[in-house]
Amino acid sequence: MPIELARIDGVHVVQDDDGRVHWESGGAIDADGANGQNGAKFAYREDDKGLDALQNAGYPNGGWHNVLVERGDGEPLSDADGNIYSKTTYAWKGRPIPKRYVDAATIPYVVVNPLVRRHAVGVVIGCRALITYQQRSVVAVVADVSGATRIGELSIAAAKALGFRRSSPRNGGVDSGVRFEMWPGSAAIINGEIYELQPA
Question: pTM of the full predicted structure?
Answer without folding.
Answer: 0.95
